[in-house]
Amino acid sequence: MSSSKTVRKVQVVSPVPADIDIANSVEPIHISQIAQHLNLTPNHYDLYGKYKAKVLLSVLDELQGSQDGYYVVVGGITPTPLGEGKSTTTVGLCQALGAYLDKKVDLFLSSTSVDCATYFSDIEFNVGNLKFLSSKYLLIIFTVVTCVRQPSQGPTFGIKGGAAGGGYSQVIPMDEFNLHLTGDIHAITAANNLLAAAIDTRIFHESTQSDKALFNRLCPPNKEGKRSFSDVMFKRLEKLGISKTNPDDLTPEEIGKFARLDIDPASITWRRVMDINDRFLRKITIGQGPDEKGKVRETAFDISVASEIMAVLALTTSLADMRERLGKMVIGNSKSGDPVTADDLGVGGALTVLMKDAINPTLMQTLEGTPVLVHAGPFANIAHGNSSIVADKIALKLVGPGGYVVTEAGFGADIGTEKFMNIKCRYSGLKPQCAIIVATIRALKMHGGGPAVVAGKPLDHAYLTENVALVEAGCVNLARHITNTKAYGVNVVVAINKFSTDTEAELHAVRNASLAAGAYDAVISSHHAHGGRGAVDLGIAVQKACENVAQPLKFLYPLDVGIKEKIEAIAKSYGASGVEYSEQAEKQIEMYTKQGFSGLPICMAKTQYSFSDNAAAKGAPSGFILPIRDVRASIGAGFIYPLVGTMSTMPGLPTRPCFYDIDIDTTTGKVIGLS
Amino acid sequence: MSSSKTVRKVQVVSPVPADIDIANSVEPIHISQIAQHLNLTPNHYDLYGKYKAKVLLSVLDELQGSQDGYYVVVGGITPTPLGEGKSTTTVGLCQALGAYLDKKVDLFLSSTSVDCATYFSDIEFNVGNLKFLSSKYLLIIFTVVTCVRQPSQGPTFGIKGGAAGGGYSQVIPMDEFNLHLTGDIHAITAANNLLAAAIDTRIFHESTQSDKALFNRLCPPNKEGKRSFSDVMFKRLEKLGISKTNPDDLTPEEIGKFARLDIDPASITWRRVMDINDRFLRKITIGQGPDEKGKVRETAFDISVASEIMAVLALTTSLADMRERLGKMVIGNSKSGDPVTADDLGVGGALTVLMKDAINPTLMQTLEGTPVLVHAGPFANIAHGNSSIVADKIALKLVGPGGYVVTEAGFGADIGTEKFMNIKCRYSGLKPQCAIIVATIRALKMHGGGPAVVAGKPLDHAYLTENVALVEAGCVNLARHITNTKAYGVNVVVAINKFSTDTEAELHAVRNASLAAGAYDAVISSHHAHGGRGAVDLGIAVQKACENVAQPLKFLYPLDVGIKEKIEAIAKSYGASGVEYSEQAEKQIEMYTKQGFSGLPICMAKTQYSFSDNAAAKGAPSGFILPIRDVRASIGAGFIYPLVGTMSTMPGLPTRPCFYDIDIDTTTGKVIGLS
After folding, report:
1. Are β-strands B301-303 and B272-274 bridged in parallel, bridged antiparallel, or unpaired?
2. Pair A654, B217: CB distance under 8 Å
3. Where does the pLDDT of residue B282 fall: very low under 50, low under 70, confident under 90, or very high at 90 and above?
4. What percent of chain B has pLDDT over 90?
5. Which residues face A605 on adjacent strands?
6. How confident is the model at residue A141 (pLDDT cuts 50, 70, 90)?
7. Of B351, B660, B671, which to mutate for an interface test with A (greatest number of A Cβ within 10 Å)?
8. Which residues contact B645 (CB under 8 A, 6 or more apart)?
9. Strands A169-172 and B625-628
């Protein structure tokens, strides 16, 4: 009996080649094999080509009774504009856990003379983690699933490039990961813009028609002259307190209330979206065609991942829940101040139909053949920046007890992990055992007072030579993230993402500072250069941290206090000594409270480059007053989002965008130049 | 040995139920089975769920040596706004040919005692049309593939509803057909809008930078201080007649020519697109954000299917050809009048990468289990309105000699069939044997002088009771379509799409008029009510027509004459006695001729409701002067398009759009209310 696994040991090369070259050097495993190793049968998923499959939500119903695995969230310290390698760490850790540290069952069978089922028939094991590839050949165990966000195509063609990880820690095939995937963002764009078209068209039609004419068109008589309400109309009727089911019974006053939404154009918060970095759409005027009769309006496009529908996808827990959330998204107010929803416009059902496949997470694989669920990618800025609840839930059931699900939270822990805990976990009911904080010597030096780090410009000398003092000074940033994260009741493991220029003394300083600040452990990880093998120590630390947690999850704030109290609790965790509200913010808080939305969690829209509102304030600033410029709400997704400063929701293209290098080899069909 | 086929005989019900109910009453066959019946192995396609697969273009290379089947194009008479059932006839005919008239090999095996391969080992047959499901069980032959366009999602949620056919002649699953499909239109939207963003951003960056600064950014020095051109830049250098390969060798003048595109904003013809009926985007102003520094510009959104990229997809013949066409799309002129292309902007390769999966047609099935290839759906208005060349080519190889490929051409034969012949067949090199003209008693009555037919309003009494004289008078329209179509050297079969209100005498009158006008045959077809069984006579007529054609394909005009001569040849076929050009049209013709584009075929943008430019002129108007308001060009797709009157390229939503009825049953996951 010999040991055998289908996970792939990748031969690493030094210096590390370009990401696309590493990705292309490996033949991906057919995704049905990855699925099979997770105990998924073809009924559980839909293939999208050979290397992607959508795992159907029904898996969750089927596994309802089974136990979850360990749940690990990956956050980071306050980053430089270059990013500190959270995605790469997430992938590398999973490669370590799945391909090197698969400790649960160490029996692999390649003998043809023994039947697996017979062999294991008297061994007690957790079926969720075992799989007979056939009755004779192979037994495979995966104890880990990586959960990551789907990247926006905007940055892929703009400045940043793709988001599949890097070096020897990547999701593959990286072109399929970065482009289209299984169409979820396209579905979001379509749904978002259908709603936008419905808003402007409705205002237009209302402006030219009497209540009665509107009503006649909304509830037209059939051939027998009988009118009826469509199903979605009953939602509006219920909201208006009208319990009649026959349109002919409505009084003229009820007809007016029902048929005329009377949307105040100035109140519309719903914008159109596009998954492109198109800065010229940041502010536009629409409706200038002669047929639109002067109903012009100023509005804007956001990038698709900033759509509330993306946040809904990330936070929903079932198809029925998604239908509900999409229908209750608020697009603005009526002139009398009532919130107007997608269902008021009759379009909540159609939006759900457009999103019905998007709700299923996409299964892919790492370079080393461990499974990855890619799902949702809400803006980490005006939204909560975490991948989906349903992907995490499915993954936790698939790995089962003793297995690991590693999920990434966008930006630094002050934003990503905070929203993961207070928004995502609140809606999912899940509790992580371990939170990772990714740190780099580079970023810590910046926090310690190093010169500014600017994307596209060469790094200052300070970042390339040893400077322990600078690192030690910068650890105040790391320490505050550790303290804040630990307060949720999880064990914090610091992952020091090692660069070739880092020195032993520098790395040692970070480890010391981490433990002093209360980290469960702090580990140096070289997954970028070595893949899973480089993250084995991190994997072991995470395993221990997960096995040794005893506390319940503690939120930063309860839901049943006022909006301001919640904002202030978060501000305090940033180090602020107080909060200042603009007049507009005060007005909005008052309005949302009046509209009954004050019980929602808070999703701060703040710069990721500082704990404070000032991106230049590095380290661990304190004593500042956090200014709240405005307060908005994503009612369908389920959060209030205060704006700290101005948030751009539509990136631009540089003079020489990434697309200059991207092409296709028309003989092989391979994508070239994608980074 | 008993006869057995997997094609499905659907039990028909009278009166015909709603389309979605018929579609939902049938369990679709797994698409891998449909593929297998076409001799496709899993290497030949990528699954997209259980009922869709993308057939890879490599199939075409593999089958290069094999012979084509018969090629049938479906056009129609000048339609009413209700449509005359071209799609339904296309699907119904294929169900008849595939499920009822499979005449090539009539031996089906269900005996378990005989091995198929052995049994047929000494029979000479065309392997392209045979398939052993297993060594023992079943032999299936398909002799027909339907090729149809992918519908736009705009109308699906707007007024018209879906486009999967109707009654017992449908493509299923109809929700998957109508929504997202395999993402091709989403890919087009993404590619189109990436190019649009590249245009405006380039103008912006050029406005704020010197030639040298632009050049420095376009060709930045690497770490060693060396500059290089990206591959796509060599296309521009070649166009400029610069053969240098080292950026440092360029003279300041060459640097200016290379780096500054100097786009004239007023000349930009490239618009953004969205697959939504969003009338408020028909005319907009962009660039009003403060960071865009006043570079505002008036522009518009079209519906995605009107994008030139859709026309490229429909007319391309290979991946290399698509790369070429996308790169040479002209977006406007420089201030000195030179055409500016996608490759000048450095984005042709990225556009191809976005479109690399879209080039593969999607395999689906009819209600009766015959195969369908869905691919491309260019606007039948400003573009050529036909499905893709690659789908037709693959289908012709797959059915092989004696098999049938039935492809639909949008709108009436004056537009759809004309463009099929003169544009699509010109680029593909394919020759149809038979052209179908679909006629309805309803439309013929309208052409004979019946009252106006208006969508959404009840039909006039004249259309519901017998009126042979009105039908006979209307046959002038049909007769001209027959004459025009016959002139291409194909046999014309008239398919009279039977409605329940049609009478024998009326149907008889059409048949007589058709034969008198030179039709090869004219057949009554009841495929809407009866599926394939209702189109058996039509199928037999088409078989005979295909087997008895001897002439070569004759185009309406040669390519090597002037733009005006070509326009005039087409105008003559409409019945016009002359053509009148606006000043703008004259100017554009002169410009395109000067730019070297006069050798392209012509794609008339004309109302589909009349042979003439006047939608109210029914029947067969003649002696009119056809006005050409403007002339535009799709250089990448490969045609010049004169505008006859104003063409809307962005539909709107009515007061009560289709989406009011569309929802999802959250317990079963089924789509409801889609029409």
Report:
1. parallel
2. yes
3. very high
4. 82
5. A643
6. low
7. B660
8. B606, B607, B613, B627, B629
9. unpaired
Residue B66, pLDDT score: 92
How far is B123 from chain A, CA to nearest CA, in Å? 37
In B173-231, which ranges are E strands?
none
Q: Assess whether pLDDT exceeds 80 at residue B607.
A: yes
> Tens of pLDDT along B23-47?
888 899 999 999 998 999 999 999 9
Q: For residues B527 and B535, is the Cβ–Cβ distance under 8 A?
A: yes
- Sorted by sequence, the CB contacts under 8 Å of residue B114 that are 6+ apart come out as B1, B136
A165: β partners: A170
- CATH architecture designation of domain B563-643: Roll (3.10)
Domains A19-103+143-182+357-547 and A185-354 share a fold: no
Residues 6+ apart with CB under 8 A from A596: none
Nearest by CB: B289 against A209, A282, A297: A282
Distance CA B292, CA B290 (A): 5
CA distance B60 to B392: 11
Per-residue tokens: A306: 């900033």
Q: What is the DSSP letter of B247?
A: G
Q: Is B218 helix (H, G, I), strand (E, B) or coil?
A: helix
Q: How far apart are CA B547 and CA A507, in angstroms?
A: 81
Superfamily of domain B31-104+141-183+358-547 in the CATH hierarchy: P-loop containing nucleotide triphosphate hydrolases (3.40.50.300)
Cβ of A289 within 8 Å of Cβ of B274? The answer is no
Report which residue type is found at A184: D
pLDDT tens, A361-399? 999 999 999 999 999 999 888 899 999 999 999 999 999
Helices (H), B219-342: 231-239, 252-259, 308-315, 319-327
Please identify which residue in the block is written with the tokens 């064990």: A491
Residues in Cβ contact with A35 at an 8 Å cutoff, skipping those fewer than 6 apart: A44, A45, A53, A55, A363, A371
Contacts of A180 in chain B (CB under 8 A): 183, 186-187, 190, 354, 357
Tell me A137's DSSP state: S
Vertex A318: Cα angle to A317 and A324 (nearest 5): 95
Given this model, what pLDDT does residue A143 score?
84
Mean pLDDT over each residue of chain B, to the nearest integer: 91
| Confidence at B142, pLDDT banded by 50, 70, 90 | low
Residue pair A380/A416 in contact by the 8 Å Cβ criterion: yes
Q: List the structure tokens of B406.
A: 């039935």
Asked if residue A166 lies in contact with residue A19, where contact means CB atoms within 8 angstroms, the answer is yes
- At the top level of CATH, the class of B185-354 is alpha beta
Taking CA–CA distances from A152, the nearest residue in chain B reads B190
Domain ranges of chain B: 31-104+141-183+358-547, 185-354, 563-643
What digits encode the pLDDT tens for the residues B63-91?
999 999 999 999 999 999 988 999 999 99
Rounded to whole angstroms, how far apart are CA atoms A543 and A94? 11
Query: What class has domain A19-103+143-182+357-547?
Result: alpha beta
Averaged pLDDT, A467-489: 98
B284-319 residue pLDDT tens: 999 999 999 999 999 999 999 999 999 999 999 999
Q: What is the amino acid identity at position A226? A: K
| Across A275-289, A301-315, B538-552, least confident range | B538-552
CB B277 within 8 A of CB B650: yes
> Given this model, what pLDDT does residue A134 score?
39
Q: Which of B363, B354, B377 is nearest to B156 (CA)?
A: B377
State the Cα–Cα distance between residues B272 and B193, nearest whole angstrom.
5
- As for the ipTM of the complex, it is 0.93
- The beta strands (E) that lie in B234-283 are given as 272-274
Tracing tokens 């914008």 back to the chain, one arrives at A271
Count Cβ atoms below 10 Å from residue A52 Cβ, excluding itself: 24
User: Which residue does chain B place closest to A318, by CA atoms?
Assistant: B666
The minimal CB distance from B183 to the residues A180, A201, A281 is found for A180
